[in-house]
Amino acid sequence: MKTTRQQSIFKKIIVSIVVIGLSVPFQSCSKKIEFEKSPVVPAARGVVKISKNSNKNYIIKIKFDNLAEVDRLEPPKNTYVVWMVTDQKSTKNIGQIKSSSSMMSSKLKADFETATPFKPVKIFITAEDDGNVEYPGMYTVLSTNNF
After folding, report:
1. What pLDDT is stored for residue 9 in this prediction?
2. Is residue 117 part of a domain?
């Protein structure tokens, strides 16, 4: 009877160690970073999640809340552009958040996702007249700290 109880406790300890051992690698592969408070759109909030996929690309997922329509900014713009600063100090346009009823709901929520082979160290959002710009304009709406 005593041996059976010891075996049961031993099995629980082993299972616990295995569960913890398996969950640690998954938690360490993903970073969650919040954007700083925006002086341009103070109610805007955003969270960036960065992980690596099996091809060793970085997956960048961003969720926004209370992000004002770009045509309501002063001065009005046409689109939000998502930028990434890489670990080699270059700045890359990684996409745009279309400000239309299909992309942003009436609650001013939006999502963005992309993959890149470059390691990101900072993400920021600018309001632009054209989404295909090669360099960010002066109108930074949201930004993370370096991570």
Report:
1. 78
2. yes
Q: Is residue 47 part of a domain?
A: yes
What's the CATH number where 110 sits? Answer: 2.60.40
Residue 94 CB contacts under 8 Å (≥ 6 apart), including other chains: 60, 82, 83, 84, 114, 116
Signed CA dihedral, 87, 132, 52, 46: sign only: positive
Model confidence pLDDT, tens digit, residues 76-109: 999 999 999 999 999 999 999 865 444 555 568 8
How many domains are contained in the chain?
1
Residue 52 covered by a domain:
yes
User: Which residues of the chain carry a pLDDT beneath 50?
Assistant: 26-28, 100-102
Do the Cβ atoms of 73 and 22 come closer than 8 Å? no
Question: Is residue 25 in some structural domain?
Answer: no
pLDDT of 128 reads: 95
Q: Which domain holds residue 127?
A: 30-143
Tell me the sheet residues that pair with 59.
51, 115
Query: Which of 43, 47, 64, 55 is CA-nearest to residue 117?
Result: 55
